[in-house]
């Protein structure tokens, strides 16, 4: 399979990890060589309830037996999407009570940007340095990293940048600004938490000048940081929130939510302000609904904070300089990028899945399924510490 994988399926790196997946269940991915890998990555924060959670599988099977795609977004009333958006409204703070369902995180960002420009009649979008919001042209244009964006220029216009957590930059938000878009917790940059009421200050500056605040919850959202939505940790309510990843419980989805007043602007001037064929797809919405119910009706969310403590307790090692993040969105900051690489690659050999972050090369991602057990956490931490002990002891001691 690996040969065909490399030959026929488009690759994005010369050396993909290339695990040959046989099946997956709970916190484990099983490979065709009969290995059982403990998953500390969850498909990059996507499989919030682990792999093939029985309630998600049941919801998918039930829906598949009724109907699949029947119409483009927004024309027919279909129970899974209606119930999902209604339940989201019940959980989101006022006035975020209307949700547009799309197909991916990046499309949720595109929709949010369009809505902000449409609502304010302004064009300038302000994003943060080292942000990651996705890879389609609009989202990519929010990435202030020339090495990655230059080959795709010209990018979307009138986008400028501020430094995350830097208060003096807030003066750059002016009456020309349509929206400021931020990740609630910066992901690719190294799991950077907003400090010193930063998000509140951004929000109040936006209000002062009539700009909208868009928060990207695509990674921190859906229970990963001890609240259903990461922004609830920072006492701020955005004008538009972008959702995705863990929302689908392992199926592809994105969404953006705003007030009814804002969202209804997509109905005119122009009519059909955002169009998608498969957004709100009944199979995907059924999976997302089952995910949201399970996350919100159990103790999964508060338990993420207990599990964070366990990780922090069992991941003390001289080569780990810092553990950043919140809940089950954690990043180990190693002494060097080289040590991060060695840890990730050696962990793979020991059947523990770890992964990189996009920009912070010294970081090792720990974003397991929210359902991970204490025993699994301790088992994985034990593997990490063993590997680091060997790395520390020197080259002869590795293996
Ligand atoms: C914060 C954030 N925003 C947006 C995206 C894009 O989501 P997708 O890959 O579903 O388009 C990601 C994906 O990694 C993300 O982490």
Overview of this structure, please?
The chain is an alpha/beta fold and 399 residues long. 35% of the residues lie in helices and 17% in strands. Strands 4-10-9-8-7-5-6 form a seven-stranded mixed sheet, with helices on both faces. The longest helix is centred in the last third of the chain and has 20 residues. The chain is globular. It starts with a helix and ends in a 6-residue tail after the last helix. The mean pLDDT is 97. Pyridoxal-5'-phosphate binds next to helix 5.
The secondary-structure class comes to alpha/beta
Order of helices and strands: HEEEHHHEHEHHEEHEEEHHHEEHEEH
Count up the helices: 13
Q: Strand sequence of the main sheet, in spatial order?
A: 4-10-9-8-7-5-6
CATH 2nd-level architecture of the largest domain: 3-Layer(aba) Sandwich
Overall CATH class of the largest domain: Alpha Beta
How much is the average pLDDT? 97
CATH topology of the largest domain, what is it called? Aspartate Aminotransferase, domain 2
Proportion of residues in β-strands: 15-25%
How big is the Rg? 21 Å
- Estimate the global geometry from the Cα principal axes: globular
- Which spans have pLDDT < 50 for at least 5 consecutive residues? none
Q: Count all strands and give the number.
A: 14
Major beta sheet summary: 7 strands, mixed
What ions, cofactors and ligands are bound? pyridoxal-5'-phosphate
How many structural domains can be distinguished in the coordinates? 2
CATH superfamily of the largest domain: Type I PLP-dependent aspartate aminotransferase-like (Major domain)
Helix content: 25-40%
Distance between the termini: 27 Å
């Amino acid at each position: 399979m690996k040969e065909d994988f490399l030959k026929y399926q488009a690759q994005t790196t010369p050396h993909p990890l290339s695990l040959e997946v046989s099946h997956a269940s709970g916190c484990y991915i099983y490979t065709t060589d009969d290995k059982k890998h403990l998953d500390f990555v969850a498909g990059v924060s996507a499989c919030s309830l682990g792999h093939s959670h029985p309630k998600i599988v049941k919801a998918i099977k039930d829906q598949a037996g009724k109907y699949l795609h029947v119409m483009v977004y927004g024309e027919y009333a279909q129970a899974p999407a209606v119930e999902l958006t209604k339940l989201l409204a019940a959980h989101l703070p006022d006035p975020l009570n209307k949700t547009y369902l799309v197909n991916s995180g990046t499309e949720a960002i595109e929709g949010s940007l369009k809505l902000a420009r449409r609502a304010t009649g302004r064009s300038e979008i302000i994003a943060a340095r080292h942000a990651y919001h996705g890879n389609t042209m609009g989202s990519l244009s929010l990435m202030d990293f020339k090495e990655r964006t230059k080959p795709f220029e010209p990018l979307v216009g009138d986008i400028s940048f501020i430094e995350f957590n830097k208060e003096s930059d807030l003066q750059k938000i002016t009456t020309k600004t349509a929206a400021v878009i931020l990740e609630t917790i910066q992901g690719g940059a190294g799991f950077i938490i907003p400090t010193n009421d930063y998000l509140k200050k951004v929000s109040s500056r936006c209000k002062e000048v009539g700009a909208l605040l868009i928060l990207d919850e695509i990674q921190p959202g859906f229970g990963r940081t001890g609240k259903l939505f990461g922004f609830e940790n920072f006492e701020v309510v955005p004008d538009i929130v972008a959702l995705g990843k863990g929302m689908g419980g392992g199926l592809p989805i994105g969404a953006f939510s705003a007030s009814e007043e804002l969202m209804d602007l997509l109905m005119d001037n122009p009519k059909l302000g955002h169009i998608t064929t498969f957004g709100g797809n009944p199979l995907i919405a059924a999976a997302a609904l089952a995910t949201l119910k399970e996350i919100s009706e159990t103790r999964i969310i508060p338990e993420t904070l207990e599990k964070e403590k366990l990780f922090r307790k069992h991941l003390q090692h001289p080569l780990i300089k810092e553990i950043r993040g919140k809940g089950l969105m954690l990043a180990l900051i190693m002494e060097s990028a080289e040590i991060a690489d060695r840890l990730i690659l050696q962990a793979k050999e020991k059947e523990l899945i770890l992964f990189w972050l996009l920009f912070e090369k010294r970081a090792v991602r720990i974003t397991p399924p929210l359902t991970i057990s204490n025993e699994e956490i301790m088992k994985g931490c034990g593997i990490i510490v063993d590997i680091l002990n060997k790395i520390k002891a020197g080259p002869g001691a590795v293996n």
